[in-house]
Amino acid sequence: MKFNNRNVFISPKATIGKNVRIGDNSVIYDNVVLEDNVTICNDCVIGEPLSNYYTDDSYENPPTFIGKNAMIRSHTIIYANSTFGEGFSTGHRVTIRENSTFGKFCRIGTVSDIQGFVEFGDYCWLHSNVHIGQQSKIGNYVFIYPYVVFTNDPHPPSMICKGPTIGDFSQVAVGTVILPSVNIGKHCLIGAQSLVGKDAEDYQLVAGNPAKLIKDVRELKSKETGNSHYPWPYHFERGMPWENIGFDKWKIENGYEND
Amino acid sequence: MKFNNRNVFISPKATIGKNVRIGDNSVIYDNVVLEDNVTICNDCVIGEPLSNYYTDDSYENPPTFIGKNAMIRSHTIIYANSTFGEGFSTGHRVTIRENSTFGKFCRIGTVSDIQGFVEFGDYCWLHSNVHIGQQSKIGNYVFIYPYVVFTNDPHPPSMICKGPTIGDFSQVAVGTVILPSVNIGKHCLIGAQSLVGKDAEDYQLVAGNPAKLIKDVRELKSKETGNSHYPWPYHFERGMPWENIGFDKWKIENGYEND
Amino acid sequence: MKFNNRNVFISPKATIGKNVRIGDNSVIYDNVVLEDNVTICNDCVIGEPLSNYYTDDSYENPPTFIGKNAMIRSHTIIYANSTFGEGFSTGHRVTIRENSTFGKFCRIGTVSDIQGFVEFGDYCWLHSNVHIGQQSKIGNYVFIYPYVVFTNDPHPPSMICKGPTIGDFSQVAVGTVILPSVNIGKHCLIGAQSLVGKDAEDYQLVAGNPAKLIKDVRELKSKETGNSHYPWPYHFERGMPWENIGFDKWKIENGYEND
After folding, report:
1. Which of C9, C53, C209 sits opposite B209 (nearest CB)?
2. pLDDT tens across C130-162, in order?
């Protein structure tokens, strides 16, 4: 019932894999590649042309690549000239501007707004309504929670554009603003509703407005169990590549043994 | 002009009451019930199937019930398996996930995102861009203002999911984050841009980052009148069931005399 | 390819200028005027009827005016009874309620929500996900960054509606809440993640939760250059009317010599 090809437009210059499903009212522009088993739900735009499309008669749409098994939920708009690895998924009404690179198995929540010119590793999970400014660089296994904003202009308005950098396994809690060019290390936890203007070293918990170092995340105990919860990969594995084998074994197999 | 049945899809398994209007490009899925006088504006999805719809050939859509006189504004997405009482209304681009229960005369503002598995009483008004995490439980006559977020994971990421609880008549001001499993009493006022990690007793004003008890709301004077504004139902009645009869009379008639 | 008139509805009572382009699935309601060279992208609603449209059989749609060269990106909803000057543009999924006035060359970012009954001068740039409450009044050359909220009810809920006022050239940084009836002067800078409850004089930098006066913006040095960055029009001219001639010359020519 959902994929009944009502009011769908697929460019003859798009490349559509096997078992791809495209929902009603969706548009697939020129030079989009959808690999096998991709699902595009209703009312999506994939490969939205860049702004000179509207003014330049010789405009040619740059390529957009969506890896196998991706699930793009309804009302999502993805601009041209980006690449999304295997297993990519979005919630509803996500906007992703041009020149964005996402690794494997990334997820982006409803209404999130990726401003383009960004780089994400593998298994990054963005919850609802996250805003990532241009020139942000995010590692692997990074989780970003609702209403977090990554900024890039230290003296607004200026011509400077320097986004934050976030290391592998770090967590940015709800409602936090990361200021331009801040470097967050690996395995950090950034507390809710923080304003982060200084760099954080590996394993630091920083929080507050303005954000300060609170403690080492490994000293933080779970209220429920009384035990350490961080590094979190020892206690959370749903959907992660160490599911069923454990983080220690996975680290050895994947070159993370020194982390 | 608006309800001209262009590009509308209504499942033959949906139940449509009298005088129901459905806007262009909208989709009504299987097992949706729209009671009399419901208005669904353009580009809506009602009864969005759950995720196993995409993978399970024997999927059957669970029921979705929208009570009489509801007004669902354009671009709203409502998942299956939820119930909405009489007089429910939404702004534009609202997303409501599965297993949500709303009482009578609730309103949800533009772009708000209800993550599902939540329970709302009657006459709850959510303004624009409110985010309600799973397992939240909200009483009656609760108002939630823009960019408020209700969270549920105390140690992200974990498998724990414990949302906040909010008592009748409480108000949560703009930009505030309520942390997991926090209990807010009745007639509370939570100040703007707060980070609320502790419970609040009935009639408390709490505010700040981190939020602290400021005073009893009954001690708070209106800048305009110099008089107490709280409990607010004595001073605000538009759209409330005590409109024209006053809060005291209504309380007696409705079993709230001890509040 | 984009403007191929699939599933477009244009009221016979709308007035469409020369070289206007209207995207797929878009609706242009009664009494909308689109001046020459306006571009409306896909899935937009222009001139959305006011709420009594749904209940009043004699409803007549008030006029909506969109000036020449405007660019309205996809999924934007603009209510009737508003006016937009030359060169107006929006990102995606913008919502603009009725009785809004925008001067020339204003820009509104993706997902922003303008609640109506507001007044903007010329060259105002709103970034993504800005929320402007009713009765706000914004000057010229004002920039507002993501997740900023302008509020208007000092004692929620009440029948009072008094929005903030912002002077020319002021900047409101990311994640900030401006409380009701606050007056911000000219050339101010409001820091990120602030809660602003007090007025700010011209040239003040205010920041924090609650926001306090930090210093005169002219004392603020750029980390990159070591020089003053504010007043910013001396250092930023892209898209501004003083581009290529400089702010001093432009001020003299435009009656701003005393600012």
Report:
1. C209
2. 999 999 999 999 999 999 999 999 999 999 999
pLDDT digits (tens, 9 = 90+) for C162-221: 999 999 999 999 999 999 999 999 999 999 999 999 999 999 999 999 999 999 999 998
- For residues C49 and C66, the answer to whether their CB atoms sit within 8 Å is no
C66: amino acid identity, one letter: I
CA distance B110 to B113: 9
Task: List phi, psi (to 5°) of A52.
Answer: -70, -10
Angle at the Cα of B44 from the Cα atoms of B38 and B49, rounded to 5 degrees: 100
The pLDDT tens digits of the residues spanning A62-94 come to 999 999 999 999 999 999 999 999 999 999 999
Whole-number Å distance between alpha carbons of B7 and A237: 43
* CB crowding B12-37: b at 16 or more within 10 Å, else e: eebebeeebebbbbbbbbbbbbbbeb
Taking only the tens place, the pLDDT of each residue in B11-40 is: 999 999 999 999 989 999 999 999 999 999
Q: Is residue B117 within 8 Å of residue B80, measured between CB atoms?
A: no
Cβ burial of A234 (10 Å; 0-12, 13-18, 19+) is middle
CA dist A32 and A48 (Å) reads 10
Q: What is the pLDDT of residue C223?
A: 81
Pair B129, B146: CB distance under 8 Å:
yes
**Contact at 8 Å (CB) between A20 and A4?**
no
B18 φ, ψ to 5°? -75, 145
From B11, B154, B159, residue closest to A223, measured CB to CB: B154
As for the ipTM of the complex, it is: 0.96
Chain B residue numbers with beta carbons less than 8 Å from the beta carbon of A224 are 154-155, 160
Which chain A positions have a beta carbon within 8 Å of C92's beta carbon?
A: 77, 95
Of B70, B252, B89, B240, the C-alpha closest to B169 is: B240
Residue C163's contacts (CB-CB under 8 Å, 6 or more residues apart) are C118, C132, C133, C134, C135, C136, C137, C150, C151, C152, C180, C181
B170 to chain C: which residues are within 8 Å by CB?
none
Residues present in chain C in total: 259
Percent of chain B with pLDDT over 70: 99
The reply to whether A229 touches chain B by the CB within 8 Å rule is: yes
Strand partners, A213: A206
pLDDT-derived band at B223, boundaries 50, 70, 90: confident
Residue in A137, A179, A144 with CA at minimum distance from that of residue A160: A179
Asked if C43 and B39 come within 8 Å (Cβ–Cβ), the reply is no
Give the whole-angstrom CA distance, residue A12 versus residue C78. 33
A54 reaches C (C-beta below 8 A): yes
Question: Which residue, A33, A38, A42, is CA-closest to A83?
Answer: A33
User: For residues C7 and C25, is the Cβ–Cβ distance under 8 A?
Assistant: yes
- Residue A56 contacts residue A74 (beta carbons within 8 Å): no
Distance from CA of A59 to the nearest CA of C (A): 12
CATH class for the region spanning A9-218: mainly beta
- The strand pairing partners of B220, in sequence order, are none
Q: In what helix (H) or strand (E) does residue B251 lie, and over which residues does it extend?
A: helix B247-253
Q: Containing H/E element for C253?
A: helix C247-253
Q: CB contact, 8 Å: C53 with chain B?
A: yes
C209·B193 Cβ contact <8 A: yes
SS3 C252: helix
What's residue B1's pLDDT? Answer: 46
Chains that touch A (3 or more CB pairs under 8 A): B, C
**Are the beta carbons of C158 and B232 separated by less than 8 Å?**
yes
Tell if the CB–CB gap between C2 and A53 is shorter than 8 Å: yes
**The total number of residues written for chain B in this structure:** 259
CA A246/CA C191 separation, integer angstroms: 44
Rg (CA), chain C: 19
Check if A18 contacts C (Cβ < 8 Å).
Answer: no
